[in-house]
Write a structure and sequence with these properties.
mainly alpha; elongated; 7 helices; about 80% helix
């Protein structure tokens, strides 16, 4: 009778560990899938950027440095390998595109150009989709991190090599600008 109880306890522990491990694997895969959704939107954005830059070049040829920084950021983002590298490269491209939006204000003819307006609309749509998939990615990351950091998952997460993963956040250098209230001028 004692042997049966011991075997039952050992079996319960084994099945619990298997359950915890499988849950961690599912959460990790969900996070990776969420980043794959970001990759899809980033690919569309990378494909759109050269068209946008080419259109702007015709109007703003003396803005060469800005256009080169956008092209370099796009290239770095397209060549990033890991999730963390892609997040950093995407943040640089986002920053460069924000600089382009500021410069466009100085070119009324460009703002009225139909091709540019279409590209700008497509870019805006992609940016909205990116925001949505980034939120989903952060949600999947939060779920994984909760499982990795809470008891008893934290014990087995360390044993099986699971760790807390980074969220998709803005860089510290951009945080001050984002948190500042916008100036409204009439």
């Amino acid at each position: 009778m004692t042997l049966v109880i011991i075997i039952a306890i050992i079996a319960a522990v084994i099945f619990s560990v298997i359950g915890i491990y499988n849950n961690l694997v599912k959460l990790r895969n969900n996070r990776e899938n969420a980043f794959a959704d970001i990759d899809v939107q980033l690919k569309q954005r990378y494909d759109l950027v050269p068209q946008l830059v080419a259109t702007v070049k015709g109007y703003a040829s003396h803005e060469k440095e800005l256009l080169e920084s956008i092209t370099a950021a796009r290239s770095a983002a397209a060549n990033a390998a890991s999730i963390d590298e892609k997040i950093k490269a995407d943040q640089q491209l986002t920053s460069a595109l924000a600089g382009l939006k500021v410069q466009v204000e100085a070119y009324p003819d460009l703002k009225a150009n139909q091709n540019f307006l279409q590209l700008q609309g497509e870019l805006s749509d992609i940016e909205n989709k990116l925001a949505a998939v980034r939120r989903y990615f952060n949600s999947a990351t939060r779920e994984l991190n909760n499982a990795v950091q809470t008891f008893p998952g934290n014990i087995f997460a360390g044993i099986f090599g699971f760790k807390k993963e980074a969220m998709y956040e803005i860089e510290a250098s951009q945080r001050a600008a984002v948190e500042k209230a916008p100036e409204i001028k009439f």
